[in-house]
Structure to design on (146 residues):
């Protein structure tokens, strides 16, 4: 069974019906059990943050969003190996972004650096339309599905 990490960007896009056809197919495969979707603590945090800011239509309560996340996705545990790799990704990734004319004013979030690090370690793709994450992830050899 295929595995993917589902980034915050993809979950927000699913909630606002702005997924690409490729990402939508991937999310549907997760929903019907043909694919395993994974998130980690920081993605969970970002989704809760966006929900509290009113950016996630369709969820009426904290319990609804927590149920959705815990039932739809499997949790990736973060540890010192991930943290060490994420710090490398953050430093090198920010340097890569500064050298890109279109992205030079952007920086990787800690969540995005962690997602790329986890993807590298587990060797599974990321579902995301986030330009920073996508660009840096691809530079590290991570497959981005969007």
């Amino acid at each position: 069974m295929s595995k993917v990490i589902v980034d915050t960007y993809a979950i927000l896009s699913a909630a606002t019906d702005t997924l690409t056809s490729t990402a939508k197919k991937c999310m549907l495969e997760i929903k019907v059990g043909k694919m395993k979707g994974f998130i980690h603590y920081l993605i969970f945090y970002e989704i809760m943050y966006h929900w509290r800011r009113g950016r996630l239509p369709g969820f009426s309560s904290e319990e609804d969003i927590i149920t959705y996340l815990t039932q739809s996705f499997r949790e990736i545990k973060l540890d010192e190996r991930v943290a060490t790799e994420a710090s490398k990704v953050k430093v090198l990734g920010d340097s890569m972004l500064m050298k890109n004319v279109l992205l030079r004013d952007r920086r990787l979030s800690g969540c995005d650096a962690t997602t790329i690090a986890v993807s590298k370690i587990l060797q599974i793709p990321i579902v995301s339309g986030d330009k920073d994450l996508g660009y840096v992830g691809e530079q590290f050899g991570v497959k981005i599905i969007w």
